[in-house]
Amino acid sequence: MKTLTILLFSLIVFTAQAAPDMEDSMKQMGLSFKQAREAQTLEVMQRAMQDFSASLHQAQQLGFKGSKAELMQQGLTELEQATQHTQQLLEQHDLAGAKSSLAELDRLRKKYHKERQPGFWQLLFGSDQS
After folding, report:
1. Alpha-carbon gap, residue 9 to 40, rounded angstroms
2. In angstroms, how far is CA 24 from the centroid of its own chain?
3. Quick one: which of 8, 23, 86, 103 has the most CB atoms within 10 Å?
4. How far apart are the first and last CA of the chain?
5. pLDDT digits over 9-25, tens only?
6. Cα 117 to chain centroid, rounded
């Protein structure tokens, strides 16, 4: 019985640690974006954008909670469209165009990061009242 309890506890802890969350996805997206922005070759930027796209897809699957969930999902959709445009430029071997299209990704990041800031009621009471 003691062994079973330890095994179940270990499984729960491992599952909780292994489960991706939105913060992990966003951090990975940030890292991939930085790598794409700093890329000097087409191949490096393609790899970074593939990683960015994978993290974006993971974030879309996780979704958001609260009153801003629909707005945040809209932001991820817009980000996906801008990512696809950047990847199309890379497929056309247009490194300069792809790098300049990163400005749209950055604009969306700034726009939706402002939107995700907790509202007054959430800060005051710890719940999503906005």
Report:
1. 47
2. 8
3. 86
4. 47
5. 444 544 444 456 888 98
6. 16
Which single residue is written with the structure tokens 């499984």? 11
Half-sphere exposure of 62 (CA within 13 A, CB side): 17
How far is residue 93's CA from residue 25's CA, in Å, rounded to a whole number?
A: 28
Q: How far apart are CA 56 and CA 113, in angstroms?
A: 15
Distance, in Å, from the CA atom of 51 to the CA atom of 45, rounded to the nearest integer, reads: 10
Q: What's the pLDDT tens digit per position in 82-97?
A: 999 999 999 999 999 9
**Residue 93 is which amino acid?**
H
Alpha-carbon span 70 to 48, nearest angstrom = 27
Helix axes 69-91, 95-116, angle to 10 degrees: 170
Q: Running DSSP on this structure, what letter comes out for residue 34?
A: H
Cα–Cα distance measured from residue 118 to residue 130, given in angstroms and rounded to the nearest whole number:
9
Cβ burial, residue 105 (10 Å; 0-12/13-18/19+): buried
Q: 54, 36 in Cβ contact below 8 A?
A: no
Q: How far is CA 15 from the centre of its chain?
A: 21
